[in-house]
Specification:
Blueprint (H helix, E strand, L loop, with lengths): L1 H12 L4 H34 L2 H49 L3 H6 L2 H16 L1 H25 L1 H48 L1 H7 L2 H53 L4 H14 L2 H27 L22
């Protein structure tokens, strides 16, 4: 898988300490266990309310409060560890990229715009270094969803099958969307680099522009680059909006069939309390579509940024200077 390969490459390139990663994932596993148990306890609380079992309800509320407290503290330490990883990783990645740029052949440097290097050191390095925190934001909800899915399977297998089929449909739409967005995003980044190059080089050469009296020509070139960049961004957003609209409508249709399924189960003797529990689970379960969409976008963005970062290192796209092994020692003379 490309993502795992890039993640491994980013881990090595950023020289991330293994013990920090282990602590990070141990805390993530703890959150997973809490999120796995919380939906089940919530279901029991609804059941105790419907059966008027006050003592058991109070005990379940106490357990839920303790779990929330542990989860809050765990999230705090998780973010603390992430900040340490991000800070160290970012420093190392940007320093290494700067050293790699110094190794590039002068002819390659002359042919390539400065924006290609600036965007890689600033934006792409940030995406690579920040991958753990970006994923963690959504993985916590994803783990909670797994807990809900297990609870639904235990309560009613028919509703579980319906949820799985619904997720396959919505996931397929999101997959097609992300493929198209990925292709358009590559085009957008290319024109964005050109725009940044024009802006950065014009700032350095503003004296020459005014001296030669070519302000109109410069503004015309800048306007064209800005327009091309905005057009590509519009095309990118247009794809996202169309597929988001389709996804929302599909979700509404699935919600309708879910209510039909609940009515059918009620007709065949499933208790109202069980239907209420299932409805509460299903009410927020389609938010997983947004979470999956966000995770897929993060992975896509990370893969694209990783490939752009590693392009500076592998020496294929950006040719590196080759030095021999001969050294001149004991040089004497005056340098003026």
């Amino acid at each position: 898988m490309v993502f795992l390969k890039n993640l491994k490459g980013a881990y090595k390139f950023g020289e991330v300490k293994l013990w920090k990663v282990l602590v990070y994932f141990l805390l993530t596993i703890l959150i997973f266990l809490i999120n796995l148990s919380a939906p089940i306890i919530s279901a029991r609380m609804v059941l105790y309310i419907s059966t008027n079992e006050v003592i058991k309800l109070l005990f379940a509320i106490l357990i839920m409060y303790i779990l929330d407290l542990v989860c809050d503290f765990t999230n705090y330490f998780l973010l603390f560890v992430h900040d340490i990883i991000f800070r160290d990783n970012m420093n190392i990645i940007q320093s290494k990229l700067a050293r790699e740029i110094l190794k590039i052949e002068n002819t390659t440097l002359d042919k390539t715009s400065s924006g290609a290097y600036i965007s890689r050191i600033r934006w792409d390095a940030d995406n690579v270094a920040n991958i753990f925190e970006l994923l963690q934001r959504h993985i916590a909800y994803l783990l909670s969803f797994i807990g809900k899915l297990i609870a639904i399977l235990i309560i009613n297998v028919y509703v579980f099958i319906f949820v799985i089929l619904s997720l396959i449909i919505t996931f397929s739409i999101l997959r097609i969307k992300n493929i198209k967005v990925n292709l358009k995003d590559k085009e957008y980044r290319i024109v964005k680099e050109k725009r940044e190059s024009v802006i950065s080089e014009s700032i350095r050469g503003v004296r020459d522009i005014k001296m030669l009296g070519i302000e109109k020509n410069f503004l015309k070139i800048l306007s064209k680059n800005v327009e091309n960049t905005n057009d590509k961004r519009y095309e990118l957003l247009d794809i996202e909006n169309k597929y988001d609209f389709l996804s929302e409508n599909i979700s509404n249709i699935l919600d309708f069939f879910a209510l039909v399924l609940f009515a059918t189960l009620l007709f065949f003797g499933v208790s109202p309390s069980t239907i209420l529990i299932l409805y509460n689970y299903l009410d927020g379960i389609y938010f997983i579509n947004t979470t999956i969409d966000s995770i897929m976008y993060i992975i896509k963005d990370f893969n694209l940024s990783s490939s752009r970062v590693f392009e500076l290192v592998d020496g294929v796209m950006f040719k590196k200077e080759k030095f021999g092994s001969a050294h001149i020692d004991n040089i004497k003379g005056d340098i003026e």
